[in-house]
Amino acid sequence: MSDQRDVQEDEALAAEYVLRLLDAEAERVFELRLHSEPDLRALVRFWESEFASLAADVPEEAPSPSIRSKLLAELSGAETSPRRGWAWGWLSLSALAAFVVAAFLAFSPMLRGPAFDPTLHATLISADGAVHIEAGYAPNGNLFKVIPEQGAPAAGRDFELWVINANADAPVSLGVIPADRESLFEITPEIAALIDGGTLAVSDEPEGGSPTGAPTGAILATDEFFDAALFQAG
After folding, report:
1. What is the pLDDT of residue 84?
2. What is the pLDDT of residues 132-147, one digit of tens each?
3. Would you list the domain boundaries of the chain?
């Protein structure tokens, strides 16, 4: 019974994740699970496919915040805003489907793109251990995610990421990264082509990034990109 309840709760969480209904902390926890749980990634892909088939017939008009709050309260049977990840283990799949379809029709403009499923990974740790940054690349959409685990630049300074590849004349900037939160962004196909077989580096730069287009400060850490499956297995 508990296993079935867990499956149903994961179905609900996956639907909420795709519809962007989870709060920031619940979304972070869910994405950590996605890295190591293939069944959960399959649920996300399922709901993405289901919602994508509906998207073509929905006008691209974002609902007002009041409509959003009222609908969520009505559908969840609550008078307040939804909790992070409703405990819907008691719902049947058909009831869950009815909810997410209704939510989709209201919130389709907020539908997220494909789930982040990296194929390459890099771990940047400085020699003294003060800086620790995890990074991943997903070719589906040329998405790049950066997760700062430890360390922050000094006042008036920024961390900047670089891709180093023998096929490029010089390090290529991925831009300045925030040190206090995860960031997910799209990179150009030209930069994406340098990642496989390349090296990731982080440098300490003036606020706003290097003024020259090349690293000007200390290189704090480097790591070659490797198969993300090895990282997940570890």
Report:
1. 43
2. 999 999 988 788 999 9
3. 2-110, 120-233
Token pair for residue 196? 């496989």
**143 and 185 Cβ atoms separated by less than 8 Å:** yes
Provide CATH code, domain 120-233.
2.60.40
CA–CA separation, 169 and 94 (whole Å): 56
The rounded distance, in Å, linking the Cα atoms of 148 and 183 is 9
Express each pLDDT in 89-106 by its tens digit.
444 444 455 555 555 544
Alpha-carbon distance 195 to 79, whole Å? Answer: 48
Rounded to whole angstroms, the Cα distance separating 200 from 148 reads 14
Helix and strand numbers, DSSP H then E, in the chain: 7, 9
The DSSP code sequence of 40-73 is: HHHHHHHHHHHHHHHHTTS---PPPHHHHHHHHH
d(CA 29, CA 191): 29
